[in-house]
Amino acid sequence: MHRFANPTRFLRLAAAVLPFSAAVAALCLGAGLVWGLFFAPPDYQQGDTVRIMFIHVPAAMMSMGVYAGMAIASAIALIWRHAVADLIAKASAPIGATFCFICLLTGSLWGKPMWGTWWVWDARLTSMLIMLFIYLGYMALWQAFDDQTKAARAAAILALVGAINLPIIKFSVEWWNTLHQPASLITMSGPKIHASLLWPLLLMIVGFGAYYLTVLIYRVRAEIHMRRTRMLRLAQADRHAAMQAAE
Amino acid sequence: MSWGGSMSEFLSMGGYGFFVWTSWGVGAVLMIGLLIQSIAAARSAAREVQAIEQLSPRRRRRKADAE
Questions:
Q1: Which of A10, A46, A89, A213 is placed for a possible disulfide with A73 were both Cys, Cβ 3.0 to 4.6 Å?
Q2: How far apart are CA A9 and CA A7, in angstroms?
Q3: A124 at B interface, C-beta within 8 A
């Protein structure tokens, strides 16, 4: 882990991973799209609306997975002052927020024809909406400080406190009586989805994961460059001030 | 194949076309948009750091970076 606290080394590793993550994302999302829209059969109860699942479920899983990654990276940044971890957390937030928004929107578009309502304040939907707000709050907090070290610290603490929401989202469908259905993919007795729908779903999940990695690499790259630019600017200003003092 | 072969039948999605296509459409637009924005941000940040490195007197230790 500490090997990759060196930004140069991290950039080199990221450049090596990028072609693979991009290829996996393009192949899995492309295959999942064709399979999910053209070849998967309509559900016997939900008809063609079940095709919304291929976007909704991967977006939901990844929005939670990205949050977990963000919280772990934040903890690493807080405890070991790891020089790249806070940038990984910062770069993850807009991706996780996008997944979270897609999950809520597609859920709404699925709820209207199947439940007869765009939205209900049940535990699953509400806890998911709270996660979107935590993502947005986390991004706003980074912008609220001029001092990036302070911003990283405050944002990391918010990310860790907000992680309490993750088990609440996961178990909301069991702890409370929700309109949202209980888990059908990750259960004690294995997936409860028919293979004809399960395979395109798994493709999409892998595709979303690889997409996250790809976008994350670009965003961390931007953050590392921007931090170096800031450092060089400060050094330049210092030299300028020293020169003026000498005159 | 789950649809009879006609385009309009496919697009109608059993009457749920609006819900299915809006879901996939908005998802695709947001994810492609985020990807493009991230690539552009990485490129402009790389250009900026290169420009300021040229103005800085102490050049980077090329040997240490190459290892």
A1: A89
A2: 5
A3: no
Residue A49 near residue B16, CB atoms below 8 Å: yes
DSSP secondary structure code for residue A35 in this structure: I
pTM exceeding 0.80:
yes
For B33, which residue in chain A has the nearest alpha carbon? A98
Phi, psi of A41 (to 5 degrees): -75, 155
Note whether B11 contacts A: Cβ–Cβ < 8 A: no
Question: What are B46-52's contacts with CB under 8 Å, separation 24+?
Answer: B46/A221, B46/A222, B46/A225, B48/A225, B48/A226, B48/A229, B49/A225, B49/A226, B49/A228, B49/A229, B49/A232, B52/A229, B52/A232, B52/A233, B52/A236
ipTM: 0.91
Q: For residue A155, which amino acid is it? A: A
What is the C-alpha separation between B60 and B44, in angstroms, rounded?
A: 20
Residue in chain B lying closest to A94 (CA): B34
